[in-house]
Amino acid sequence: MKRLLLFLTLALLPVPAQSTRELAEQSRKHAPTDDSVASKLIHAALDRTHQVVRYDPAYVRLDYPGGDVPADTGVCTDEVIRSYRKLGFDLQKLVHEDMKRHFSVYPRHWGLAAPDKNIDHRRVPNLQVFLKRQGASLPVTQNGSDYLPGDLITCTVAGKLPHIALVVPAPDGGTTPWIVHNIGQGPQCENRLFEFPLTGHYRWHPGR
Description:
- By secondary structure, this protein is of the alpha+beta class.
- It has a single domain, classed as endopeptidase domain like (from Nostoc punctiforme) (endopeptidase fold (from Nostoc punctiforme), Alpha-Beta Complex), CATH 3.90.1720.10.
- Helix content is 31%, strand content 15%.
- β6 (178-181) and β7 form a beta hairpin.
- The chain is globular and about 50 Å long.
- The model is unreliable at 1-16 (pLDDT under 50).
């Protein structure tokens, strides 16, 4: 009887969810393997789910160009920065150079009088302006098929916090893609494309 009760108890326990790494590898099966920037970006984003990263928004003085916070720390923007950097595109340098030339068009939320190469590229509103200036902005819709793997989305979390994520294929091959992002638990592959109010949709594939 005790064994039966134990069996029934165990049977009723929730089944452990698949790990984000397993989901990412299932997503990878639906990703193209050609030489396009979009394909390389998808795989770079999925690779990020194999990294252990503690969410840490602290200001850090960085090398320039090619500077990065410690590999085991970061925020949502760092997943984007690191994914593009794997393809040879240094957002730290690109954003800093554009802000030096056109500082007035960038947000002034932080009270800066000049660009700061240590932090500017790590702020979602700055990336939004940069991407729009690159001609990468696309309409924001609620139609999953409008978002292609290799795209970027921005959204607002908890009503005020800007967030950014990379779009990847759904692990089950569904029509609504998933995202890779760091929202506090490190790089995750999750079905959260439409969970938060979208504020931007971008397709930036330089050099294609």
